[in-house]
Amino acid sequence: MSKVKIYWMLVGVMFVWGANVPMLKFIGTHVPPVTVTGIRILMASLTVFLILKLFKILRLPTRREWNYILIGSLSNVWLHHLFLNLGLAETSATSGGLILGMGPILTAISAAIFLKYFPSKLQWLGLFLGISGVTIAVLVGSNGLDTNIGDLYIFISILSQVLSYMVVVKAARTLDPRVMTAYMMGVGSIGLIITSLIMEPGGMVEFLDAPPLFWLIFLASGLISTAIGHMIYNYAIGKAGATQSAIFMNLNPLFAMILSSLFLGEILTIRHFVGFLLIVAGVMLGSGAAEDLYKKHKAKRTIPTE
C-alpha cells in the first residue's frame, strides 16, 4: 500500500478518534465510565477478530509475541481507556481533546528513548511548545486542583497509549499489527470489566435504563472509533513507523474541539485556539516534520544549476 493511501487512512482515523471524545463524554453520563468502556472494548475486540477471520489473516501468536500482547493490553487498552474515561468524567471533552493532542510529541520523545531515535534541538523546542499549549488551553483560568484532576487522568491515558506504540513497532517485525490489536483489545477488555466490577458495582444494571440514543452512540464508538480506528492506526504504525504516523495526531484535538462544540455545546475560547496552535507547532517540530521540510528546502537551494 502506498504512503499516500496510508496517510489518508490516518486522517480518517483522526476524525473518528476526535469524534470519539464527545461520544465517550455522552455515554459516560448514562453508564459508569469503566463499566461501559469494558463492554465497549470487548465488543470492539470481537469485531476486529471477525474482520480478520473474514480476511483470513488471523492466527495464534507465538510465546514471544504473547509478551508484546500482554504489555500492549496493559498500556494501550487497560491504562489508556481506564484513565481516558475517568478523565472525561471530571473534565470537558474540549480540554480532553487538547491533551490528547500531545500524543505526537510524546511519541517522538518515546521513540528516542526506546527506539534509539534521539530528538534534535528543534524537536525539544517542539516538546516545550506542546506543553505550553496544553498549559494555556487547560490550566489557565481553571479553579483549583480538583477541577483539573480529570486533565491529569487524560495525560496518563495518552502517555500509556504512546508507550504502547513502541511495543507495536517491535512486535510488527513478526506479528501483523491488526492481529495484535484484536488480542490486545480482548485481553484488555477483560481487565477493564474486572476493574469495573470492583470500582462500579451494579454498573451493568444501568445499561437497562439507557435511552436509544445512547445505544446508537455506544455502537458507533465501539465499532468505528475503537475497533476499526485502532486496527487501522496500529497497521499504519507497522508500515510508516510510530513517529511518522504520530504526525497526524495533531488533527485529533482539532476534530475533538469542533465536534465537542457542535454536539455538546461546549464553548470554545481564545485560549483553546491559542493552545491548539502551540500544540500544532509543537507537533511539527517534535515529530521532526518541520526539520525534514527545512532540509528538503535547503537541499533544493544548494543544487547547482547549469
| Overall helicity | over 70%
Provide the residue-averaged pLDDT: 81
Rg measurement, Å: 19 Å
Alpha-carbon distance between the termini? 37 Å
Number of DSSP strands? 0
| Topology pattern, helix = H, strand = E | HHHHHHHHHHHHHH
In what range is the share of β-strand residues? Answer: under 5%
Shape: globular
What is the SS-derived class? Answer: mainly alpha
Q: Number of helical runs?
A: 14
The biggest beta sheet reads: none
Return residue spans where pLDDT drops below 50 for at least 5 consecutive residues. Answer: none
Account of the protein in words:
The chain has 306 residues and is mostly helical. 79% of the residues lie in helices and 0% in strands. The protein contains 14 helices and no strands. The protein is globular and about 65 Å long. The two termini are 37 Å apart. The mean pLDDT is 81.
